[in-house]
Amino acid sequence: MNAHAGTLSFTAHAEWIVAGYRAMVLDGRWREAYQSFKEDTDGLTTQMIENILKGSKTLVGITTSEEGVDLIDDTFETGRAYRDNMDDLFGGCVLINRRLFRPTTVVTDYGPNDRLARSGMDPREDFILESYHDKLGKLEVDPHSLIERAKRYAQTKEYIVEFCSFEDRPDSKGKRDLAVIFEPGPDLPFWVRPHRTTQDAVNASHKRLRFTGHEREYGSMKEWLKTNASDAAAATFVKYHEIALDVEPEPQTSPDYSSQIRAILKQNEEGGFGMRTVFFGDRAGAREVPNGPLLQWALARLQRIEAVDVKLPNWKPVNPSGIKLPMDDPSHTDWMMAADLLDFHYHEIGPYMDKLCGDVQAEVLGTKATILVAGKSYAVGAIKFCDSKTEVDADTVAVIKHAGVNYIDIARKAAAVITLNGGSMSHLAINGLSEGFLIVLDPKAREKFAEGNFVAIDAVNGTLELVSECKPELSGPNI
Fold first, then answer.
1. Which residues touch 479 (CB under 8 Å, ≥6 apart)?
2. Which residues are paired to 96 by β-bridges?
């Protein structure tokens, strides 16, 4: 070839060509690989190119030889390695809410981020519960507890938590449902099909999944206590752990929260929030409650809606959110701790707390209905009185007997939920804070409305109103 013109001739091995295009796929440039392969080769159909990039077929031979180039099944070591790399990059995807996600982490028992003993978190209740269930062979874990833990382990801001079935320990006596973090999936090549269900995606991703939990990563709870708690605290924990596994456990004493209570009251005084006297039933009686964390607790249920123009108290939590206690509430427990209510069961003081939540909202925002969760600002739909098995859809406003976790599927499908009993501390409300439900507490809903009535719920203004006796017939031009 001279400086002015010439011809360049070369010989190419088909294996090199395939390797080049596959490298582009593994680099995330699968569109470029597919288009270039299609433009640069003659005699290959679209299906042939797809099979080569999938890794099921490959090209062999030399472009200038008499035998030419053949398309054959890819059973070579390089093909197996390519398929494994493809699976690592693109495998395990599933469509959730019309978006691609894939599982990354399985949340089992408590992890190090949950055990914040020096910050006041008391891990005993859940740890004892799990140990006790393991001993009985039930392997049960509280679903809400797992969801709260999953929030701590998500690696991205966008994630979804789904429950999937696992036989996750060598000594498992059966499968149990665990919380799985699904994070946004990759740009999926068109020849890779997403799975139909989250369980299928988990099954296909089992080798890649990270199983997190304190014992899995950091050893036994006793070992953790040696380095993260005082000798006295560790001894106390072990004592209660052993008591809880006895057939006839001894009474447990309450943790000492006196230093935290002092910190809550000091912060409340410095913020100028003041105190109020609240009656919590005959056994609990009247208690002095600090306004700062109380307002934070009641108004946070509405503050998720941007249209609510109210400034929450500038409150720095003293008690870590998500703590598992008899009065657990992931949005705030400082005011309950300061009022010395943590040893009371919900059924004893719950109705008074639900009324207090509504009173605070009405006092600050002028609401007429008690909004337990405002995951969306507005909803309309037809009233339906439901049990846990009732079928509902996006045009339904479901009226349920209580805000228990067995109504969670209804809350996910319905436009909104009206609960007759219990609310602010219920499993349904706590789950709803993270899942974006719209839940209203109205003990007289059955008296106010008939099945089929069309109602509107305005979470911004805190109203629940009858629109018409039945669903309006909307008329308009044919489209």
1. none
2. 99
Q: How far apart are CA 175 and CA 165, in angstroms?
A: 6
* Beta bridge pairs of residue 310: none
pLDDT 10s digits, 5-41: 555 455 668 888 889 899 999 888 889 999 988 888 7
* Residue 343: CB atoms within 10 Å: 13
Is residue 93 within 8 Å of 205, Cβ to Cβ?
no
Cα distances (angstroms) measured from residue 159 to each of 143, 151, 438:
17, 9, 20
Contact 417, 411 (CB under 8 A): yes
- Both tokens of 236, joined, read 């106390």
Closest C-alpha to 380, from 304, 465, 264 = 465
Query: How many CA atoms does the CB half-sphere of 222 hold within 13 Å?
Result: 7
Chain-centroid distance, C-alpha 233: 32
Give the model confidence (pLDDT) of 80-118 as tens digits: 999 988 888 888 999 888 889 999 988 776 544 444 333
CA distance 362 to 368: 6
Answer for the pair 127, 109: CB distance below 8 angstroms, yes or no. Answer: yes
DSSP-derived secondary structure for 97-147: TTEEEEEEEEE-S--TTT--GGGT---HHHHHHHHHHHHHT-----HHHHH
Residues β-bridged to residue 374: 438
**Environment class of 250 (CB within 10 Å of its CB; exposed 0-12, middle 13-18, buried 19+):** exposed
List beta partners, residue 417: 398, 439
CA distance to 195, 373, 408, 411, per residue, from 405 (Å): 28, 14, 5, 10
